[in-house]
Amino acid sequence: MESRLDFFASPLGGKVLKHINSAGRAAAESGLPAATQELVKIRASQINGCGFCTDMHTKDAAAAGETSVRLNLVAVWREATVFTEAERAALELAEQGTRLADASGGVTEEVWANAAKHYEEEQLVALVSLIAVINAYNRINVINQQPAGGYRPGQFG
């Protein structure tokens, strides 16, 4: 499978990705736990059917020490006992924030209140930003049919 465009080599693509990367870096450096960040990126990517991002973030998480059990259970986190209450709140927020078109009103007050119980305000800003950024990446890669499987941990720095 080949991508429709060489988005990474395009001058305009490079400009767009530079800005998305800057937003992602700001969220990543926020103090939100790194494991939570990867879990959220994986779950949104699974929902959006983004093989490239799912490949990238599962490999990055594994390289950072995440267990295969937890990585294998992200898609079914509600039934899994391996996630903390804070991680579960972040995963629920990620799901509702990713499935905006499926919900009549976006993220529910209950889901927001649960996330706010576990994360301080700057972490919530980071979490919302992270969800927005990974959804942007997912859309670029899905539309472009970016192939998955060849990512190496840390490949993009």
From TrEMBL:
Domain annotation Carboxymuconolactone decarboxylase-like: ranges: 24-95
Protein name, per record: Alkylhydroperoxidase AhpD family core domain-containing protein
Keywords assigned by UniProt, alphabetized: Oxidoreductase, Peroxidase
InterPro entries per UniProt: AhpD-like, AhpD_core, CMD-like
Pfam families registered for this protein in UniProt: CMD (PF02627)
NCBIfam families tied to this protein: ahpD_dom (TIGR00778)
GO-annotated molecular function: peroxiredoxin activity
